[in-house]
Amino acid sequence: MDELLAAVDALAAEDLAPLCGPALLERLRPLLVAQNRLAAEVARTVAECEVSGAAEHDGLTTMASWLRGHGHLSGAEAARVVRAGRALVHLPAMAAALAAGEVTGEQAAVLGTIAEPGKLTLAAEQNVDLAVVDGLLTGVARTRPYADTAKAVRHYADRLDADGPEPDPTEGRRLSIVRHADGSVSGRFDLDAVGGERFCTAIEAIVQAGRCAGDERTRSQQQADALVQLSDNQLASGGLPVLRTVKPHVVVTVDVEDLADPATGAGADAAQLGSGALISAARARWLACDGAVTRIVMGPDGLPLDVGRTQRVVPAHLRRAVERRDRHCVFAGCGAPAWWCDVHHVLEWANGGDTSVENSALLCERHHTKLHHGFRVQRRPDGRWHTWRPDGTEIRTGPGGAGPTNTGPPLVSAA
Asked: How far apart are CA 208 and CA 180, in angstroms?
């Protein structure tokens, strides 16, 4: 591994400015092959991690969640890597092509869908020679773009279950949402015919109801506005499921001075959404026009943030303060949103711990349970949370987060 990293360092030290277009392309081609070969090693290692349950070492359930939290991959990319790893054992031709750098990790992942348990069962029932299919589809992947590979795989899947029972429409539904650094959201979805008809009918109703003279929005903008309006209507109706004893709502945190001062305008990111995205004070004032305003005082005056030993159950105002500070599960590598989480007493209430912001941590149900089985968390003076395994070694995240493991200080950590 040291030699590999040294080789990458040598590449990074090369000056590319003197190279012309053809020379740059010639340099790029073997880099892509190397990237594919590294993708093969990542997939192979992830597959072995799944077999051995390695994610449990860092308090996580699956390698997909580990890749998201520790490898900083998106949900879609983590799932792709896991899928490719699982397929290696069933598709040797694909595995060999990936290891040789002849197909991409993305192609390997889409090819890997033919090795899913359900499709393997159907292939066995119909006496399909999977080795032949593996060879044919890998041949397509070697010579054709990703889109053609995906089309060939889809064709095989359709032929495999051509005479099967009517599929459950919910099995084909997919919705992927990606939140970007600036708080904006993008995504894609796949719906069956009936589900898609319902969705389009609801969106079209709002689009048509909002038509007016002089509307210069494009069709796509109209539909996007309709989707936001549909969400607004559902939130306002009060009929959505309650999350952790709280009705779902949009959270905006802003200093009272910025909220009250109209001079603080669009140019300043003075407010923060529940997801952590920053918005202007002007936008926060606009949202506050028809929203409920809750005062959270992070100090000695106003609403107390420390109820001491008088009660064990965390009151609603204290939970809001903890959510404002932590935003999501504080266990290393986990990003579960606040509405999945419990407020945890770092020092157990029965052992003398106060019900206070200082003694509280936001933890999802799984990691709240982990802290009952030897894992520990602590918030340092710099405001960052640290997590330790039962053996005392610290869990570190990030691609380079393995490093030397530190033994944490003595901690008491229970609910």
From this structure: 30
| Beta-carbon count within 10 A of 297 CB | 13
What is the C-alpha R_g of the chain?
Answer: 26
Residue partners of 174: CB distance under 8 A and separation at least 6:
188, 189, 190
**DSSP string spanning 145-166?**
-HHHHHHHHHHHHHHHTTTSPP
Cα–Cα distance measured from residue 63 to residue 69, given in angstroms and rounded to the nearest whole number: 10
Q: Are 157 and 114 in contact (CB under 8 A)?
A: yes
> How does pLDDT run across 189-236, given as a tens digit for each residue?
888 888 888 999 999 988 888 777 777 888 898 899 888 888 888 877
Cα–Cα distance between 223 and 245 in angstroms, integer?
33
How far, in Å, are 45, 86, 407 from residue 82 at the CA level? 10, 6, 31
| Rama region for 158: left / alpha / beta (φ>0; ψ in -120 to 50; rest) | alpha
Type of residue numbered 131: A
Q: Does the model's pTM come out above 0.85?
A: no
Q: In sequence order, what are the residues at sequence separation of 6 or more whose Cβ sits closer than 8 angstroms to the Cβ of residue 389? A: 57, 58, 59, 374, 375, 395
Mapping DSSP to helix (H, G, I), strand (E, B) and coil, where does residue 261 land?
Answer: coil
Instruction: Single out the residue of 178, 37, 156 nearest to residue 105, CA to CA.
Output: 37
CA nearest 413: which of 366, 349, 327, 365?
349
Any idea where the domains of the chain sit in the sequence?
25-164, 188-237, 252-288, 295-415
| Those residues with Cβ within 8 angstroms of residue 111's Cβ, 6 or more apart along the chain or in another chain | 87, 91, 94, 103, 134, 137, 138, 141, 149, 153
pLDDT value, residue 37: 93
**pLDDT for position 373:** 82
Q: How far apart are the first and last CA of the chain?
A: 41
